[in-house]
Amino acid sequence: MPLLDESVRNEVKREFADLSGAVKLLVFTQEFECDYCAETRSLAEELSELSDRIEVEVHDLLDSKAVAEKYGIDKIPAIVVLGEGDRDYGIRFFGVPAGYEFSSLLEAIKMAASGDSGLSPEAREALKELKNHVHIQVFVTLTCPYCPMAVQLAHRCAVESELVRADMVEASEFPHLAYRYGVYAVPKVVMNERGSFEGALPEKAFVDHLLAAGS
Amino acid sequence: MAKLKFLVSTELGRAFKEGHPYDLVIVGAGPAGLTAAVYAARKKLEALLISKDVGGQTLLTSDIENYMGYHYISGKELAAKFEEQVKKYPIDIAVGEEVVSLGRAGEDFALVTASGKEIRARAVIVATGKRSRPLNVPGERELVGRGVSYCAVCDAPLFAGKDVAVIGAGNSGATAVVDLLKIANRIYVVDIMPEWRADPVLVERIGAAGEKVETFFAHEVIRIEGKDRVEGIVIRARGGGDEVKLPLQGVFIEIGLIPNSDLAKGFLELNEAGEIVVDCRCRTSVPGVFAAGDVTNVPEKQVIIAAGEGAKAALSAYAYLIGQRR
After folding, report:
1. Which of A36, B74, B83, B109 could form a disulfide with A96 if both were Cys (CB 3.0 to 4.6 A apart)?
2. What is the mean pLDDT of residues B300-320?
3. Residue A63: domain span
């Protein structure tokens, strides 16, 4: 049985009607599939059926070690969203992007297709000042209505700046990470292991945190 | 494993014309604001819907069983259906923008957003809803995001197998308990009142869970303890008695709501609770400014009531604008 029902499929088709470039979804799983690994793979495959611009490549975390290392994949399920010509913008999803995060996956696909971050001119200008690499991890639950704002903003920053990598991390699928980073409320945003904050901040405040983390 | 759901969009858009005089600006996109938007669009008003998020408090409710037309629907699905209906109409929508002030600008009204943008309107509907009321006990503020939560539906999955407390035995508290039943190990319910104030159907559902839920009625929370994260709460029976410490990892505070009426302070008449005072046509103390939903003094905070009030506010605003044109 497909994960996406008829009405969701139709809505997604509308969202994908004007994808401007090709998108590749790299899905990482393993032979003995983890919780939600099968669902994550099926989700990517079902999405690729809804647009001829989307291609899916499934990798086994252990068998495709080199590929996993190249994209910094250390846990599964994972999705890497690549743009035209396999361009890596730094968009990652760890855990199944269902619930509210489904919209983040759709946004990421549209962004990778266009290569446009959609950030405000001020934010784009500010991100040019970024000096060092920043790894953003946005911890979410699938029932959190405010989380996609943080995830999508992080992904926008990743598309805008080559120095940024942004991960969505579904907290309940990775309890060890939730414990390590003290995730007791979502969204929780961790930047370069050091700075962290809770809540979906407006664009400017988010970018300010990012600049501080990468200074 | 729970059945996965897939929600397509939470972002309606963010375009609006800065400084441009709209016929009507609707502030807030919960049930009241979204319904007002549909009614305004059908009257062909040039309208802007502006809000921090879409769905308002509906998003924080997992199950809704009393919105007509649906026996059962989750809050997010109902909000998504509202949103879908609004999207069918060509009105401007700005999501992610918070309006921080509202005042006069000549014959029009001026609204200023947190990001410093100014919007002009000939009429305004304030539908900004309510937010969680804090407990105001020691430890609470320090431990927000470290075990203290005001969003059970968001944060409940982080407390798998943990012991938690729900403060408040009204409908929101009972709903939080129901959400946590499948997740937490043990749930303490603390309320200053002597019994549940929630709908009996919810109380029955909690009763069926047996010993997993322990109630401390007629008790008050003295403080929340913990260094880097919540380690327990201290409670005491009202009217005296010994302090009791409950060791636990999560505290969900559900003791009611406060109106998001800051933008209207000093401009519109508010009641003692901070709610915007409206008449039966949703008119506020300032002609041309209307209000609807939970932010107003209209009794009973329900999705269906907020939606109805939103419709009424839009129709009243339309009548006002027609009157102005004459």
Report:
1. A36
2. 96
3. 6-114
